[in-house]
Amino acid sequence: MTRSPSPAPDGHAFLRAATAGIRHHARGLPATGSAPGRPHLDALHAHLTELHRLLDHLADTTRAPHPGAGRNLATAHARLWEASAAVHAAFHLLPTPASATTECHPDRLPDAPQILTICQRHTASGHSIRRKTTPTDLAGPHATACVR
């Protein structure tokens, strides 16, 4: 009896696990009645920021050998930053404890560690997007052409 070789690991197990975790989380959310809280948006922003970093890396490494794919990944990188910016803005619009402020001040000590985390994370990703895109890129159409 010959034994077939085990399949080689594809290196994407962590991505699949993260996707499954988000899917499981989304299925567990109530259909109506409760809005997300600030901790929920903070966690979502953290996921978007890490995806932003991943797309940045993939766009950089794909651009030279496959320019069309690299451009599309760069566009996805910009759009994902816009999504994280919207989540960051929503975070600051949600109610806070009476003593906390909703303003974003990443340059000073926050009223709560959570605000420091999301604002610093957002500022860092903002620096990244500004180095690699122009205002026209961010204001451009939200569809990408399939360029080969």
What's the structural blueprint in terms of helices and strands?
Blueprint: H1 13-27, H2 38-63, H3 67-93, H4 113-132, H5 135-139
How much helical structure, as a percent, in the residues?
55-70%
What is the H/E order?
A: HHHHH
In what range is the share of β-strand residues?
under 5%
Count of β-strands? 0
Radius of gyration: 19 Å
- Low-pLDDT stretches: 143-148
Sheet/helix structural class: mainly alpha
Average of per-residue pLDDT values? 80
SS summary, helix count: 5
The best one-word shape is globular
Biggest sheet record: none
The span between the termini is 47 Å
How would you concisely characterize the structure shown here?
The chain has five helices and no strands. The protein has helices at residues 13-27, 38-63, 67-93, 113-132, 135-139. 17% of the residues are buried.
Molecular structure report:
Helices cover 63% and strands 0% of the residues. With 148 residues, it is mostly helical. The radius of gyration is 19 Å and the shape is globular. The termini are far apart. The model is unreliable at 143-148 (pLDDT under 50).
Looking at this protein, list some descriptive labels.
5 helices
